[in-house]
Specification:
The protein is globular. The chain is built from twelve helices and no strands. The two termini are 29 Å apart. With 362 residues, the chain is mainly α. It has helices at 3-30, 36-57, 62-121, 128-153, 159-190, 196-234, 240-249, 256-272, 276-301, 310-324, 326-351, 354-357. Helix content is 84%, strand content 0%.
Length: 362
């Protein structure tokens, strides 16, 4: 092969890669409004694929294994909803009734803080108009939050989108789970033969990191959702169930789940309890959860297998959310894992090159 032919081949590969990336970006932009059940189905199929492989290895047909896993997952979801939904609904009704109380308490706290500042700094710094402005903003916040919560609980989610997720997602999951090995083999057949070893190595590394993160984080979220919900409810916090479940389920976002749950729970406890020991108990629940997560659960379930830095994951989640909304959040971690693996591969090649070692002159 001549130098011109090699250069032409490299240009063709570059144009092909750029064209494929542009096509994917355009498809995400055009079809973002209908992609949610398909993305959810793909993620669920990816999570269940190892179980399907094990069932297939013991002689269960792939189609039957896919059906059994999807049905089992639906049964678990339905059982969860039957057991938890009435409790969550009761907690949401309590929330509607308590929001005005919490905001009035916040207004009183702000008034007391402004009076304290006026006594310390003088009326020329903190005057009556500033206190009235703060009180007015609290009242505005009260009306907005109450209306927003009522709107969400009254049907803020469109019925069509809910039906799409409920009906389409299991179907997509079944077909992807059934045909997963065939799809992987098809994609493998598209790769230029010259780059097969490299692409397979990168794909295995992406799968290793992504599977460890996704499956590990899913288990971590489940553990802490149960722990926080049970502990806060047992401690007597009025909205302990819903706050604990939310804090646990969003703990896949680094620091956000624990910090937000801590701030909200302690704030609610300060309004609800007269004894500071009860408030300290609520705070101790989250401190304990954070210690257990950092020193016991995270090292055992994730450990060194996950080469995704918390800041990189946090940036990816927010960037994906800004670009594509909830779908972007779902795709953020797979994209971050792939980018990280490719970046480390090219960095390794760069360090092995003459350019890095400064060989060969200028």
């Amino acid at each position: 092969m001549t130098a011109e032919e090699a250069e032409s081949g490299r240009r063709q590969r570059l144009y092909l890669i750029l064209g494929a990336l542009a096509a994917v970006a355009l498809a995400l932009h055009l079809f973002a409004s209908i992609l949610l059940p398909f993305v959810l189905g793909a993620l669920i199929a990816y999570l269940l694929d190892p179980l399907a492989d094990r069932l297939e290895a013991v002689g269960v047909p792939r189609s039957l294994a896919a059906v059994a896993l999807v049905v089992a997952l639906l049964a678990l979801i339905i059982l969860f909803l039957l057991l938890i939904y009435p409790l969550i609904l009761a907690q949401l009704n309590i929330l509607l009734s308590l929001v005005p109380q919490y905001l009035r308490a916040l207004g009183n706290l702000m008034q007391e803080a402004l009076v304290w500042l006026e006594e310390r700094l003088g009326p020329e710094v903190v005057d009556r108009r500033l206190r009235e402005l703060a009180t007015g903003q609290i009242n505005t916040m009260l009306g907005w939050v109450t209306g927003a919560v009522a709107t969400v609980l009254g049907g803020g989610v469109q019925l069509f989108n809910v039906l799409m997720i409920v009906v389409v997602t299991p179907i997509v999951t079944f077909y992807l789970l059934r045909d997963w090995p065939k799809m992987v083999a098809s994609v493998d057949s598209w790769v230029p033969r010259r780059y097969i070893p490299t692409v397979r190595e990168l794909a295995r590394e992406i799968d290793r990191i992504l599977s460890a993160w996704v499956r590990g984080q899913a288990l971590v979220c489940l553990i802490f959702a149960v722990f926080y919900a049970v502990a806060l409810t047992a401690a007597g916090l009025q909205l302990g169930l819903i706050v604990g479940l939310t804090a646990g389920l969003i703990s896949f976002i680094p620091y956000v789940g624990t910090l937000s749950g801590f701030v909200i729970s302690v704030g609610m406890a300060m309004v609800q309890f007269a004894d500071w020991r009860d408030v300290a108990l609520i705070a101790a629940i989250f401190v304990t959860g954070n210690i257990v997560e950092g020193y016991v659960i995270y090292p055992r379930l994730l450990g060194d297998r996950v080469e995704l830095h918390a800041v990189w994951v946090l940036f990816a989640l927010f960037a994906g959310g800004a670009l594509l909304g909830f779908i972007g959040v779902l795709l953020a971690v797979p994209a971050a894992a792939a980018i990280g693996v490719v970046a480390r591969y090219w960095l390794k090649r760069y360090r092995a090159s003459a350019l890095y070692r400064d060989e060969g002159g200028a």
